[in-house]
């Protein structure tokens, strides 16, 4: 049962992956990518990591929806109605990725992988939770900080009017000049 | 045998993502390519965890990190693209080559 | 306690969900009539239900350069996701599939509606539907975080993601008693992802029906069905999370679950008319600035209680 | 007491330098003269209290750089006291002579006060490094005097040649000193200990090299022939007072170095290489006299005569080193002659240069053929120059004869051939001085074009007061030399004994 | 007693110095003061001759300045004082009031003092000091009228020549010291060991010959004649030139001790006497004739010293001093009054000034060595001693005596000719080249009396020296000499002198009118045997040439070498600077350029194209991965 599902999911994932760069419409590319990543979530689910699998699907769906918003905002031809090739250096990229694929698969088959050690715990979610909160606390802290930094940086970068513009030249205008009203304290 | 096959799947995803990243001009498309590559990594991590070291949680931590990385990459990518777009109405890497050496 | 049902429960659950949805629609038409001053009559309800065969036989409108694939996908996803999310909910002491990560599954299916609705909005290649889709995404950003933390507070209280464990944890005391904020935020969330009542902003009349603007025929039917299915699914989910699932003094577990679900559903349908449609950016401000901290405090309180109880 | 004598001028110099700008030049000159007179008085006091047979007296010894064995050790004996007296007398003379100086008087006075301190300091120094420090400071002082107040266009070039040339010599000297101190078991630069210890007694080659270094350093300073080419330009460009001090005092430093350092500290190698010094001395005598004979510039001629006189000293000092064929009395006579020659040359050539200063001040040039029959214009000037010239060529009755007689008598015993050659030097010196006198002072009267319309003014009181005492002192030494010889002879006897050991 | 001797020296020297320094201030008083000092000196001289004081003072280490008046020096001291007084009496006449008399009298007294020290000195240093001072004063006096460059040049020549000879004294002093005679005592010189004695003796001989104007140094005496009359009278006749002879007379024991010195001195004296006699005969100017005659007469004294006859020598010295100073005074007076010293022009000078003329005639006769006069007697003594030594010397002496007679008579002949009628005419065309004051005025009495007195002294001295009376004189001189001249020698010399005088008197009128075709020999003799030209050619000119050459060599070679060294240093510095600029700096700049190029290369991969970065990253990682895998 597991092998069949793995095969299925694998083939669908690859198909969607290829579809991402094959189709013209940006929306279709986005949702092909979503499909591929959902399959990845599925594979993870099947490989005995239910929590991570479902969380991956959860995150990917939200991400792709947001990406779709940006896709439409920035792409010249989001709907892919006017087919044009947005590619460059196709041959080079193909060559490199083929070479990488060949070397990786070669490595996969040549390297004698060690035998499995130990058996999966009963509750994998508990295992990862315990690890993150215990031995891997440093990773958790780092991830926390990275996420915080990303939030602040992304906001700052994306804001049209910058962080300080709203506070006027001398940074002291009391009700900051924000385009949209509302917000705390106003 | 499934272990190697899943790894091949991961390699495949990684390579397709790589091809996309290298060949696409649009920043968003490149980010999609990178997302696929990270997806490959997640698959590989799960595979390693499942087939080699289920006892330890390291494989899972790698997946968590990969997922966070994907989220961060996404956020920062679009922030930069927004800033770039707002500044110069350009969204392809070819036109944003000011940081040329 | 709750063990996975047999194979036929897979069919029973959708049926029950559909029934619930129909009941909700009827209640809604009665409320609308009462609201309009007329007496709620069975005929009005019947007329409302006749909509289904009308839509099924209607000629679907075709639009130029519509992305038919994505459109069809979007319209299908919304009801499918609702149905899938219910599989995890335990009915009395038996659920269809008792996943160890049932709560996350429900959340994942709930997020799928975002994708579905956006696709439904993008598909017809029309401005109003696209804007409607965007509105839903914006509304989603608003309600998603408080809803997640509400679910997390329930999970923290039960120290597990499995719904059966959550129900079991509510033997003594229902979570709604010491997680009221979580319950309210959950209800608001249910209304939000069913984009009904105060949260009908994506399908707002100012956008000529928003997401439903271009939907016609089967598409429109599926979308409408999806809204009401999600409403009942949300109500069903609230029961095991906050209202102790099948626990109850006298009646059997499934009866209590049914009763509680109908109660919640009634509460929601009652609330639909009472609150005006809230604009997404206004709600996002309320959600992120007020509800989010509250739910965080809620989770913190729950975690402390759990620690004290476990520690002591 | 000696430190007071040495550093009194320096105090005055510092006082003057720090004095407010408003101090008029005339006061500066008077201060200089006063200080010089006071210094001379102190030295006379020293002389009176000096016991000829007491060896080194008025000693003061304080550690200065103990790590390197260098101490501030000063003292006077028969050799250095006359020279110190002569230096003070000469500085007083130059002070009086410069009363009428007009160009930048304040710094001029400060420089000369500094030079006096340095010169006296050198003669009283009994520590090699102290000697060397004063040796080099004198170069610096003289460089500025020549460069600053020299009248020729090439003053700066001459000053630079003078400085670089003698400075290189001083470096060789320093090398020698270091060699000396290293040879001593407790490394010390103290002269008396080195003399007592006689460190280089045994080492032949090493001592020879040290003597070579010392010899070259001192030879450059007392200009012996091969190293003398800096002297004539330095003199022709230097101002009168500067020339007087350069010839009167600075040249003696080199000669004094031979007697004070080279002979007592390196007796063995001095005896072995004495012949070299004799030959260089003799050549200097004859060569200096002949080249002087061929000069047309009066001051340059006198400069070359200085080379001759220094040659005599070197001859005497060299002869004193040769033990064969002489007895102690002859050698000490030669050394005494050398010291007296230093004193007499200082007085006479100092006077001569001051008088040439007068000549240049009036006539604007030193060329002999530009003047003629000056006696008619300036009888007193002519008389003074005549007397100085005759004293210079060794007429008895003046210190020149006393010195040269002792040198020649003392040196003939061991160096018959060299001394006879040196005798011809006497003759040539006589010829050149007479020729100069005849050209300039006697014969029909003719003044150079540059001479002012008022004619050739005679000696001004300040100039007379400067030159006449010097000639008077030379006369006193010439007539009654005993007062000087009583002081010098015991010291030269000790030096000859040291060389002979 | 030594105070007397110190006084004897101090008086002339002190007075002289005072007068010299006073210069023109006491011009009027100068003669009186000078004369007083001279007289005082004379008195002291007589006193010291009687008491024979001795004195010494410490001079150098182990060397004392000793003075003693013994037999020989006593006589001389008195003689010097006497002649000085006489000359000073005559001097005011010679020098006009406008002259700088203070300087003249000062120098004369200084000279007298120096001469006194010379004769009384017993050790070499004072002798040498006095010797040199005499030279200096003679220079000052010869060049007294320094306005005329030729006079000064003559003074210089005189001084340099005598100075050259004086070097001998230095040599002698050094040799004595070397030879072990620490005290430098003249008498002890014979004790010097080995070769040093010969060296000392040679030095002394040379000095003496130089000072006494013997061959080959005698040419300076002809220049000395440029000085004023009294100077010639005092210095260049009586005292200075005699000093050399006196020295040899005193050091006769040393001469004998060395063996070769005595004959050398004797023969030099003889030859000088003869040669300079001939030169005197050939002279046309009176003073030049007298100067040459002085040299020849001193030759006799040197001959006496050589053969070891101090008393004869001294007598000769005294006689000659008296006679010659008289003649010079007269000649000087005529030079001032008649303005010329050429013999033809002095024709009949005796008649013009009878008293002066008489003195001159007496002096000339004495000079001729005619019998009863003093010089004849002295000459006989010397010749007697010479004969004892070697007949050749005796013959030489006789010939010299004959020649002496010859030139004396020549002078006499011209001077005693009858006055030419156009008396005044002579005054005008008298050549001025002798520089005398032209016809200032007639010789006053002050000149005539000393001339007469001196002439009288010259005559009467002869009498005292006659064999009968010579005992006390020889006793005074202390030198007991056996060879008293036997009568036939005296007769022979008298005959020779008379014959020569007669011949000269006969031959002179003929030659006076003969055409002036002077033969080569005559011209050579007239030019003082061209000794000066020889000396100048042999010594002076090469010395100057050598001097000029050396000066040039010094400026170019030695100074040049130093400047080349400096210039070499500069070029080295420039070379180093260039090397530094192009070499090192170049290398540094090359490295910099290389870095810039590398920089450019490093920037090439930074194309700004994102996809290329990815490609590079991937290739890089794969390489890294493969390395890690391969290496492990």
From TrEMBL, chain A:
<comment type="similarity">
    <text>Belongs to the complex I subunit 6 family.</text>
</comment>
<keyword id="KW-0812">Transmembrane</keyword>
<keyword id="KW-0520">NAD</keyword>
<dbReference type="GO" id="GO:0048038">
    <property type="term" value="F:quinone binding"/>
</dbReference>
<dbReference type="Pfam" id="PF00499">
    <property type="entry name" value="Oxidored_q3"/>
</dbReference>
<protein>
    <recommendedName>
        <fullName>NADH-quinone oxidoreductase subunit J</fullName>
        <ecNumber>7.1.1.-</ecNumber>
    </recommendedName>
</protein>
<keyword id="KW-0874">Quinone</keyword>
<dbReference type="GO" id="GO:0008137">
    <property type="term" value="F:NADH dehydrogenase (ubiquinone) activity"/>
</dbReference>
<keyword id="KW-0472">Membrane</keyword>
<dbReference type="InterPro" id="IPR001457">
    <property type="entry name" value="NADH_UbQ/plastoQ_OxRdtase_su6"/>
</dbReference>
<dbReference type="GO" id="GO:0005886">
    <property type="term" value="C:plasma membrane"/>
</dbReference>
<keyword id="KW-1003">Cell membrane</keyword>
From TrEMBL, chain C:
<dbReference type="GO" id="GO:0005886">
    <property type="term" value="C:plasma membrane"/>
</dbReference>
<protein>
    <submittedName>
        <fullName>NADH-quinone oxidoreductase subunit H</fullName>
    </submittedName>
</protein>
<keyword id="KW-0812">Transmembrane</keyword>
<dbReference type="GO" id="GO:0009060">
    <property type="term" value="P:aerobic respiration"/>
</dbReference>
<feature type="transmembrane region" description="Helical">
    <location>
        <begin position="141"/>
        <end position="161"/>
    </location>
</feature>
<feature type="signal peptide">
    <location>
        <begin position="1"/>
        <end position="26"/>
    </location>
</feature>
<feature type="transmembrane region" description="Helical">
    <location>
        <begin position="173"/>
        <end position="196"/>
    </location>
</feature>
<keyword id="KW-1133">Transmembrane helix</keyword>
<feature type="transmembrane region" description="Helical">
    <location>
        <begin position="69"/>
        <end position="89"/>
    </location>
</feature>
<feature type="transmembrane region" description="Helical">
    <location>
        <begin position="253"/>
        <end position="272"/>
    </location>
</feature>
<comment type="similarity">
    <text>Belongs to the complex I subunit 1 family.</text>
</comment>
<dbReference type="InterPro" id="IPR001694">
    <property type="entry name" value="NADH_UbQ_OxRdtase_su1/FPO"/>
</dbReference>
TrEMBL record, chain D:
<dbReference type="InterPro" id="IPR003918">
    <property type="entry name" value="NADH_UbQ_OxRdtase"/>
</dbReference>
<feature type="transmembrane region" description="Helical">
    <location>
        <begin position="338"/>
        <end position="360"/>
    </location>
</feature>
<feature type="transmembrane region" description="Helical">
    <location>
        <begin position="301"/>
        <end position="326"/>
    </location>
</feature>
<dbReference type="GO" id="GO:0003954">
    <property type="term" value="F:NADH dehydrogenase activity"/>
</dbReference>
<dbReference type="GO" id="GO:0008137">
    <property type="term" value="F:NADH dehydrogenase (ubiquinone) activity"/>
</dbReference>
<comment type="similarity">
    <text>Belongs to the complex I subunit 4 family.</text>
</comment>
<feature type="transmembrane region" description="Helical">
    <location>
        <begin position="204"/>
        <end position="220"/>
    </location>
</feature>
<dbReference type="InterPro" id="IPR001750">
    <property type="entry name" value="ND/Mrp_TM"/>
</dbReference>
<keyword id="KW-1133">Transmembrane helix</keyword>
<feature type="transmembrane region" description="Helical">
    <location>
        <begin position="105"/>
        <end position="123"/>
    </location>
</feature>
<dbReference type="GO" id="GO:0048039">
    <property type="term" value="F:ubiquinone binding"/>
</dbReference>
<dbReference type="GO" id="GO:0016020">
    <property type="term" value="C:membrane"/>
</dbReference>
TrEMBL record, chain E:
<feature type="transmembrane region" description="Helical">
    <location>
        <begin position="447"/>
        <end position="470"/>
    </location>
</feature>
<feature type="domain" description="NADH:quinone oxidoreductase/Mrp antiporter transmembrane">
    <location>
        <begin position="125"/>
        <end position="393"/>
    </location>
</feature>
<dbReference type="GO" id="GO:0016020">
    <property type="term" value="C:membrane"/>
</dbReference>
<protein>
    <submittedName>
        <fullName>NADH-quinone oxidoreductase subunit L</fullName>
    </submittedName>
</protein>
<dbReference type="GO" id="GO:0015990">
    <property type="term" value="P:electron transport coupled proton transport"/>
</dbReference>
<dbReference type="GO" id="GO:0008137">
    <property type="term" value="F:NADH dehydrogenase (ubiquinone) activity"/>
</dbReference>
<dbReference type="GO" id="GO:0012505">
    <property type="term" value="C:endomembrane system"/>
</dbReference>
<dbReference type="InterPro" id="IPR003945">
    <property type="entry name" value="NU5C-like"/>
</dbReference>
<feature type="transmembrane region" description="Helical">
    <location>
        <begin position="314"/>
        <end position="335"/>
    </location>
</feature>
<dbReference type="GO" id="GO:0003954">
    <property type="term" value="F:NADH dehydrogenase activity"/>
</dbReference>
<feature type="compositionally biased region" description="Basic and acidic residues">
    <location>
        <begin position="422"/>
        <end position="437"/>
    </location>
</feature>
<feature type="transmembrane region" description="Helical">
    <location>
        <begin position="167"/>
        <end position="184"/>
    </location>
</feature>
